[in-house]
Amino acid sequence: MDWLAVGLARRELQDLEGAVDALGQAVAATPAHPIAAFAYAQVLFETGREAVAAFERAVSLDPQNPQLIRTYAAALAAEGQVEKAQSILLDVLAQHPQWLDGHKSLATLRVAIGQREDFDESFRRAIDALPDQASLRLAHIHLLSTARAWEAAAAAIKEAALQVGTSRGLEMARLSLISERGGPDSLDPHLFDAVADWQDPGLDVCRVRHALRLGQVDAALSRALPYQNTRQARLFWPYLSLCWRLLGDARAPWLDGAETEYIQTVDLGLSRGQLAELSSSLRALHTAQAPYLEQSVRGGTQTDRQLFFRPIPIVQEIRRRILAAVADYVAGLPQPDLSHPLLGPRRDRPLLFEGSWSVLLKAGGFHSVHTHPMGWISSSLHIELPNQAETGNGEAGHLVFGEAPPELGLGLLPVHAIAPKAGTLVLFPSTCWHGTRPITTGERLSLAFDIRQPTD
Questions:
Q1: Looking at the structure, do residues 223 and 250 belong to the same domain, yes or no?
Q2: pLDDT higher at 137 or 115
Q3: How far apart are CA 379 and CA 314, in angstroms?
């Protein structure tokens, strides 16, 4: 039997325990096979097992594989060997300073362990060594912008223009920065005039957001509509929702559902003992010191890797109940509509997770308003909540839907709010704007996931 093929197929179907078994067989049968060694180490890591020794064997067979080295470093960090993980990444980056994924991995690791002050150090070193490499500079600028380090990003853009000259990518980065950082220039109605004929999905998201800030709803709509039936549509559906709501267009309830049509709560029937066991298991996974750069978490932490791939009994029990609840949700959707992001995808495919994670918010913590462009159906399951007597009866911790991102200044209020309740699962379309109100005291533990959009 081709155990490698079996293991990779099981992993693709998210049968991770089956993948671990099959890939273990593959390594035993062909111990010198580099792909089998890497795949086995990968699934050990993805399931939360000790994986460093397996990665070291894989690296010995394929020492020049950058993806392997990057994941090996992540495994080291996960098993408490943070300094060694950083050292390995720095050593490889010293030899290959244009390894962009390596720079990003190191920056992400440093943010997670609380070393925010020098999280982009490797980028700066590489740029000093290769000052004429435009791709390196653009990746650095993107990292700084993602971290909302606006002043550093502006300085990097200015330095790049002086060193390598202007380019399409650099100009898009400059315009995006001006538009997103705030200040008088961000409201310049002519900001994007010079690039009016440029076509790029990322640039068009910036232009849509800029038009909305200026109150030019029709202009934002005309910029977003051409993407409605493209592969990039999920980037633009949330902004189409805002535009249609602001214009009183009937397509807003068509997209978002009439009232709370597509937002559902499900009691998973968890006992106090099960909630306590789940809480204990999840808290043990919250090892980061700060949220990752691209996440909506403010004042808390988020777990790494796919939560539902871990062979923790209570987590797997929750996974089974959640899949049943999602299947019921999908079965109860209205008739298919191929032009709709929630109703269009096929419903006869296995339900797979695009991601699954846990969030632990501290006092004052919240989720900023956001969407999930990589998902089809998104969620929140509350597990442990602050004492209501301490928080009062206000909106602290409430999950809110339909509120526009505050930085756009649209004044669109939430269309629905849900008070958190331990053991209650909330399901909603991934294109729907959502966030949470800050908790005023205590801690809020939850888990969430995105269901992957099925494909033909």
A1: yes
A2: 137
A3: 18
